[in-house]
Amino acid sequence: MSRILCIALNPAIDISSEAETVRHTHKTRTHNQRQNPGGGGINVARVIAELGGHCELIYLSGGATGELLEAMLKPLNIRQVPLKIHDPVRIAYNVREISTNLEYRFVPEGPLVSEAELAPVFDLLEKTPAEYIIASGSLPRGVPEDTYARMAEIAERKNARFILDTSGDALQTTLASAKVFLVKPSLGELESFVGRKVGHEDAGAAAQEIIRRGVAQFIAVTLGSDGAILVDAERIHRVPAIEVPVQSAVGAGDSFVAAMAWSLAEGHEIGDAFRFGLAAGAATVMTSGTDLCRRADVLSLYETNKG
Q1: In CATH, what number is assigned to the domain containing residue 178?
Q2: For the chain, how many structural domains are there in total?
Q3: Which residue from 31, 112, 148, 242 has the fewest beta carbons nearer than 10 Å?
Q4: Which CDD domains does this one have (predicted)?
C-alpha cells in the first residue's frame, strides 16, 4: 500500500534543449535535447521514487502524447493510474540560452477536460487509503476552480493530509473554502492572498495570518537567495538557502514538495522534512533542463546543511 498519492490533472511531456543565442524571427538551432514526463504531480511522483519512496500516481492522459507519456512513465517505480481523456497531453518546451545562462520556458495551458472525464479522479480519491494526498500543478481548461478544494474536503473527511502546490485562482479558491495540511505558495501568491505587498522579512507574519484563518496547518514559502520559511500557528522557522551551482530551476518547487512529503511519510518531524525539501530543491537546480534531483545529491546536501 502506498502512503502517498500524487495527482496530476495537467501533466506534460517536458522537452528541454540549449541554444547559443535565442533571437526572434530567425531560426534558433538547439542541441542537447532531452525529454521527461512532467507536470507538477508527475514531477512529485518522480522525485519520491528517486528518493526510494513508494507512491501512487493518478493522472489524466489523452491523445498520442498521452500514450507517449504513459510509455515514458512505465519504467519508473511508481504505481500508475492513467485516466483517459479526449484531448492530447500538452508538450512544454524549455530552452537555455548559453550566452546568458537564461532560461526560456514555454508552457501550454493544457487540454480541455470535461466534468465526466474528471469524475473518476474523485472516485479514486474516495477509495484511496493514502495518508498523504498531493495535488500539484495547474488545472487544465474546463476544470472548475474549486477542484482542489473538493479534493481537500475529501482528504479531511478521510483523515488524510492534503498537500497543495498550485497557483492563481485554483490556489485562491482552495484556501478560501477548504482546509489543507500544507501549502507551498510563491511569495507573489502569498501577496495576492493577503492583499498587500509582502517582503522577505515579513513573509512569515503574512503566512501566519493565513494559518490563523484555519485554512492551513503549515505554509512553506521559498525565498530564492534568502532561503525559505516554514510557518505554523506558533512559529516561523527560517532556513538559509543552500548554495549550489545553478543549471536549471525547472522542477525545483515540485522536488521541494516531494521530498517534504516523502520525509513525513518516513516518519520524520516537520522541521526535518522541511530541510529535506530544501535539499531536494537545491539538488534539482544542479541538474540540466527538465532533469530532477538525484538521491545522492539530496542526501549529501541534507546532511551538510541540517545544522
Answers
A1: 3.40.1190.20
A2: 1
A3: 31
A4: FruK_PfkB_like (cd01164)
- CA-to-CA separations, 149 to 124, 169, 177, 180, 253, in angstroms, rounded: 16, 11, 7, 9, 21
Please report whether residue 267 resides in a domain: yes
Q: Which residues are catalytic?
A: 254
Contacts of 16 (CB under 8 A, 6+ apart): 33, 34, 35, 36, 93, 94, 95, 96, 248, 250, 288, 289, 290
Query: Can you tell me the mean pLDDT for 229-255?
Result: 89
Instruction: Answer whether residue 68 is part of any domain.
Output: yes
What would the pLDDT profile of 87-137 be if each residue is shown by its tens digit? 999 999 999 999 999 999 999 999 999 999 999 999 999 999 999 999 999
Q: Is the residue at 213 inside a domain? A: no
- Provide the pLDDT for residue 249: 81
Q: Which structural domain, as residue segments, surrounds residue 173? A: 5-9+11-20+30-183+242-305
pLDDT band at 1 (very low <50, low <70, confident <90, very high): low
Buried b (16+ CB within 10 A) or exposed e, 80-119: bebbebebbbbbbbbbbbeeeeebeeebeebbebeeebbe
Q: What is the mean pLDDT of residues 206-218?
A: 92
